[in-house]
Amino acid sequence: MTALTLFPPDRTAALERLAAFAPKAGRDYAARRNYDHGPGAHTSVSTLSPWLRCRLITEEEVIRTVLGRHSLATAEKFIQEVFWRTYWKGWLQLRPSVWDQYRTDLRRRHDDVQTQSGLRDRWEAACSGATEIRCFDFWARELRETGYLHNHARMWFASIWIFTLELPWELGADFFLRHLLDGDPASNTLSWRWVAGIQTPGKTYLARTSNISKFTEGRFHPRWQLAGEARAIEAPAPPAAGILPPPDTPRPGLRSGFLLHEDDLSPGFALENTDLIAAAVLAPQTGFSPLHPAPHVAGFRTAAAKDAAERWAGRIGSAPTPVTDAQALENWAAAENLEQIITPRAPVGPVADCLATLASRPDAPRIAQITRDYDQRAWPHATRGFFPFRKHIPELVDALA
Ligand SMILES: Cc1cc2nc3c(=O)[nH]c(=O)nc-3n(C[C@H](O)[C@H](O)[C@H](O)COP(=O)(O)OP(=O)(O)OC[C@H]3O[C@@H](n4cnc5c(N)ncnc54)[C@H](O)[C@@H]3O)c2cc1C
Q1: pLDDT tens digits for 53-108?
Q2: Which ligand 1 atom is at minimum distance from the Cα of 177?
Q3: Whose CA is nearest to atom 47 of ligand 1?
């Protein structure tokens, strides 16, 4: 079972997975979603996250399909989980410095790994699944081989990493980001912060033997091996929410290029009235980590971008040029003599960094980042915790009708 066999990197596979899962998104999901049945058997959850991550399939499509079969009340749990993703994206969008700080601290942690042999040995053992905590080692290998872990396994794994193995949380978040097919700057960084007791200051997540045993249906029972308490990691309080940039629109009359990118391979805006002379698709291979992503992650990203590019070629008249970094993006814009790039808004992360680098160059084209209505409506509500955000779900769902 390879990662790309379990998660074929194309939209057709995403639609098939959604169609198969939708009947189970109501009561079945609410009752069974916390059970981790192991690799290739994650049948109580949707496993849609790799495709949602790059929007080969969108949150709106998933919500609409599920609500085509269930009432909001019946599918409440599942819809709420999809909105966790939206909430984390909005939260980070309102506080981009948290991502910058994570990357600065991560570089320091990787320097420590180079200079401290004890830390390096413990880090290598954790990443390769050689800690002698059987469940943890199993999940490390499952992640490396399949590019996916069940949500509960992610919580247990992160908790054991931080509180039992006493490894820096940033290195664990980085291990995830390099191996998860759905690795996402917002969901990943903020979930690790949450387990560590930084996101909701003082509130940590402690993995317990009985909980692991129950929700793996007895596959694991790590008795006496796990930390008995989880003291929050010391860190500065989260910054106050900033403001979102105002909505952007394409300016008519400019030589314009269309840029697809791996944060949104299904842009939700019309291109009919725009005179496009070129198109590109951006899938950065760097900017997530000082280390390289796992081959399956790089392979998924490249193939997903190619799949989207092929579908868009018919709509925009030519095959988008693949680009992988800010320099290649700049070269493309210069070669096409572009005055404007029209692109779906890139949330905080490597794509946004590439666009910011390009924008900082002299003679850079204007960049019109179009925010999807779904994000524009939801992100401003991510100012505090998920519970105040959750109150807005019914109106956000109504807006999709
Ligand atoms: C330490 C840790 C790291 C994580 N890293 C990531 C990550 O890099 N990328 C990522 O997409 N998710 C991440 N998650 C959240 C969650 O574990 C995954 O989204 C979920 O397991 C994906 O599996 P699924 O598609 O079967 O989810 P389902 O249960 O079927 O949920 C449907 C969709 O809702 C969204 N979702 C569900 N739960 C969450 C959640 N808790 N937070 C945010 N979105 C959620 C996902 O897009 C998911 O595809 C992380 C959680 C933890 C505890």
Answers
A1: 999 999 999 999 999 999 999 999 999 999 999 999 999 999 999 999 999 999 99
A2: 8
A3: 49
